[in-house]
Every structure is written in C-alpha cells, then in structure tokens.
Specification:
The structure holds two protein chains of two kinds.
Chain A lengths: L1 H31 L6 H17 L5 H23 L11 H23 L14 E4 L2 E4 H23 L1 H11 L1 H6 L4 H23 L11 H14 L4 H21 L3 H22 L14
Antiparallel strand pairs in A: 1-2
Helix pairs in contact in A: 1-5, 1-8, 1-9, 1-10, 2-3, 2-4, 2-8, 3-8, 5-6, 5-8, 9-10, 9-11, 10-11
Chain B lengths: L3 H15 L6 H26 L7 H19 L3 H22 L5 H21 L1 H4 L5 E2 L10 H23 L1 H11 L1 H6 L4 H27 L1 E2 L6 H14 L4 H17 L6 H16 L6 H8 L22
Antiparallel strand pairs in B: 1-2
Helix pairs in contact in B: 2-7, 2-10, 2-11, 2-12, 3-4, 3-5, 3-10, 4-10, 7-8, 7-10, 8-10, 11-12, 11-13
Classes of the chains: A mainly alpha, B mainly alpha.
Amino acid sequence: MDYFVLQATNGAIIGVIYALIAVGVTIIFSILKIVNFAHGDLYMLGGYTAYYAITFLGAPPLGALALSMAALFLFGALVERLLLTPLYSERTERKDEYGLLVTFGLAFFLRNTALIVFGPFPLRPRSFVPGVAHLGSLTVTWDRIFAGALGVALIIGLLYFMHRTLWGQALDAVSQSRESAAIVGINPRLFNSLAFAVGAALAAAAGALIAPVYSLAPDMGVLPNIQAYVVVILGGMGSVVGSIVAGILLGEAEGLFTAFFPDPTRALAYTNAFGVLVLMAVLLVRPTGLFGRRHVRME
Amino acid sequence: MRGLHAYVLAAAGVCALVYGHLLNPYWMHVAIIAMFYGILAASWSLLAGYAGLFSLGHMAFASLGGYTSALLVQWYRLPIPAGMAAGVVLCTLVGAGIGWICLRMSGPYLAIFTLGFAEIVRITFSTEDEVTGGMAGLHTAPLFRAATDLPYYYTAFGLLVFSLATLAVIARSRWGLFLRALREDEQAAAASGVAVARFRTLAFAVASGFAGLAGGFYAHYVGILTPSVGSLDLMALLVVMAVIGGMERIPTAVGGAFGVEFLQEALRAYGQWRLVLFGLILLGTMRFARNGLLTPAWLQFVRLGEIRGPAPARRGVGQEGSGP
C-alpha cells in the first residue's frame, strides 16, 4: 500500500512536469500550426542551463530557474526568427512537411551539440532544497515537492497570462484567426516569436525543475518529448487546460502502471512503452483529443 | 542522344562490380554500409518524398526485419535467405497494417504515431533480453563464410540494384503518379479517382518491405544486432541522408546516403562534430534549398547528351526530371 501511495505521489509530480512541457507544445501548435519535434531538446537545454547557473554562478534555486527560462525564451525567439519564418510565406509549399523536418533537424543538431558541449556523462546539480519530507508513512524528497509546487505555480501563472492579460488574449486571437487578428491591429509576426519563445521557456522550466530529481543527459529529452505528444494529443491539440489535465493523468497512469506491473525488473522499461501505447490508442480513437478545440485542428 | 545518363549509370555500376575487389577491407565495409543505407533512403523517399507520408518508423522496420531473420535462423535452423524473406514478408504485412491504421492521420500525426511504433519496437527488443540479447546484442549467423567481405559486397550491390529498379518502376508508373497526387492534395486525388486508402497502404507496405530486406541483410552481415538499429538517432541520420540529397527523387536520396556515409568515414577524426555538421547541413538545406543539394546536379545529369539549342516546344515545364 505504501508503495502504491508513493508511486501515486511521484506520478502526480511527474505529471505536473509533463503538463509544463506539453503546454509549450500546445501553444506553439496553436499559433504556428506545427508540431515541434525539438521540444524535448529545449527541455534538455533548460536543464543544463540551470545546472551551470547553480554549479558555476552559485545561483539560488529560483534564480537558476528564472535564468534558464530567460535564456531559453531568447533562444526560442532566435530559432523562430532564423528557421521558421518560411512557415508564414505564401510561397512555401507543404508547410506541415517543412515544420516537421526543420524541427526534427533542429532536435538532431541540438542533441549532438549537447553531447559535445555537455559531455555524455549524466550530471546532477546540487539539490534545490536538500533533505526529505516525511508525510505520514510516505517519504518524498523536498526536490520533488519543490518541482511539483513550482510547476503548479507556473501553470497557474500561464493560465493567468493566457486568459487575463492583453498579450495572452492577443495570442489566443492569433490562434483563432491570423487574418482577423491582423485586422484588429495585432502583429502576427511578433506573436509567432512570442509563442515559440514562451513554449521554449516552459520547457526550460520543466528541465530546470527536474534537474535535481533525475540526472541530466543529452538524450534526456527524447522520452519526455514523446510523453508531451501523448499529453497534447490526449488533451487535445491547442487546448491548454486539456494539456494540464492530461499531463497529470498520464503521470498518474504511468506511476500506477509501474506499481502494478507483474515483473518489477521490466516495469520501468515498459512504463515508457505504455505511455506510447496510450498515445497510439488515442490517435486511433479520437484524433482531436479529449478537449480538442475545433479551430485548431490540424488539416 | 537521349538517355545517355542511363548508359553512364550502367557503366558506373559495371565498374563498381569489376573493380570492387580493389577496395581495401575498410572501404569495402564502408561501401557495404553505404549500400545498406542506400536501400533505406530510397524506400523512405518513396514513402516520404513521393507519397508525403512522413514515417519515423523506417529504421524500426529495418530492425524488425533483422531480428525476425536472425531469430528464425537461430530457432529453426532456416537457411538465411529464407529467414530474410520471412523478415521481408513480416515487415510488408506490419507496414501495410500501420499504413491502414494511419489512413486518417496526416503529416505530423502520422510522424508521431510512427515514432511511437518505433519506440515500442526498440523498447521491446531491448527489454526482452532473454530472447533478443537486449542491449548486449544478438549474435547472428553470417551469410557467407569467406575470408573477405567481397561476397557481401556483391550481395549488397545486387540488393541495391534490385531495390532501386523495383522502386524506380513503381515511381515511374501510374502508381508513382498517384502517390505524388496524394502528397499534393489527398482530396483532389480522391476526386480524380485515386484510390487513396489502397495507395497509402501500398506505399507503406512496399517501403517497409524494403526496409526489412535491408535490415535482414545488415543483421547477417555485421554478425551482431542491437536494438539501436531502430533508434531515433539512426532514423534522424536516415532523414539527414534523404533530405540533404533530395528526398523527392529516389536517385538523389541514394546519392545523399552515399555522400553522408562517405563523409562520416572521411571525417572520422572529428568524432561527434560530424553529426553536428550534418544537423547544420540539414537545417541549411531545409531553409535555403528544400529540393536537396544533389537535385540540380541530377537534373543536369539526366539531360546529358540531349541536343542543346532551342528547347522542343512540346515538352511541358514540369516534365523534366520527373522520373527517377
């Protein structure tokens, strides 16, 4: 029973992290209409930025998080300007294909560059909050609690930004109709950059929060990237709330799957396969997801 | 003289056969691996370049074909060609199944779905280590017991020529036209009478079958098979090869595979930097030369020997170089 509760708690925390990554995929999708295949690598970069901020600059936890988000925000805007502008040109044919190949190529480039720059060996920064918390019979490290709590705070902040601020509403307007948004004076180009940058910053936050929990490695983004697709497709492409619900659902489902899998030595490996299986099932049964919004459906 | 390029290609092929034994063992290995990637790039180009179906599971099919053949040979003492044939049949069937399941999915959804399929295949092969040897690898029976790799070289060459010929026939036939119509606009193609479901399934089945063939050969050539054959990294390398060469034509995709494999060996001293370089070239190609770096050269090559001067009026603009 204790093991079960522990897995459920861990599942909820990981679910929050999944939600953070997936919300970024959703925002980028709803504005740029592309699936970002490099999102897991932005998450990886975020984790490493936080690691270096903590190890070499001696930054405090929140400072490292903020620094990593800011760095990836700028990096995201730069990538969007350099590589994704053909998506808005009338002359580009088959934009789906372009977005897919460019982000896939970017992922390949970033992963291999990281392998050289950061090295292949797993790194782990100093704990944000050392020690463990005893909640009844449950033992959870403070790092996990910190990651979960800050993840929830960031998601609340994002929801506030999307629904209560002028910029967030402008972002939503661009996602609904680029032309109509332009007519009322919203510059779509600015919001393209903003969407990609915000997505990258959220991925960086997830990476920074997870850094003290799991080790950092150049290929750490591959599986979370797939989990993010599971979440986004389960929750519905373009739906921020859907992504949050689905992220926590997936984290829980995976945690419980690990707890109940009959062969414990293989449970961890098949947990990842389980998430992918959920993804394939959802794609088959309900391609628009559980909370899909009609206007952001992929053609 | 039209069609001169075909003779040039044939001559180059004959040279490769006749002078193959002059290669030193190292470069012979490189050539064999390059031909393995050539088959994969060509079949992926039929799927992604012609039909517009971006499968990220192509290497997973190669690994499926390889493991099928290796395990059947190990369990039932099948002759190796029969094992490879079984791998091809299985990959064709599974490919048709995946193609059929994905009928409703377009672009990125299809890519995500096939990525999921590839991950499941990889995770299963690496976790079921009692059967497959897991990450330590599966020892496979060698196809030939010879002192040199020369028999493998000829076999790879034969398989490559067979694959290219088959794929070229498909690409040049009405089927190829239908596949390209699917890529441009599925609804318009359906309205013009293309059986969309049948041809999408067919493209997947054929391409996966060839991936299985390449995988089966690879398994019995290298002698040890690991789940990393089906990894995302190798899939990315295959995408790099096809896109840099030009994925909308089979010969340019194969040229890309040869070029990248050659560069990978020639620049071996730079280690990991090679992959960074390939990533940069891929991004540059997508951004500035989407048709691929080899496509202009290939179009020139196809026109080799044609009479220069005023162009014949009746040839349409889009006509040239539309075949492989």
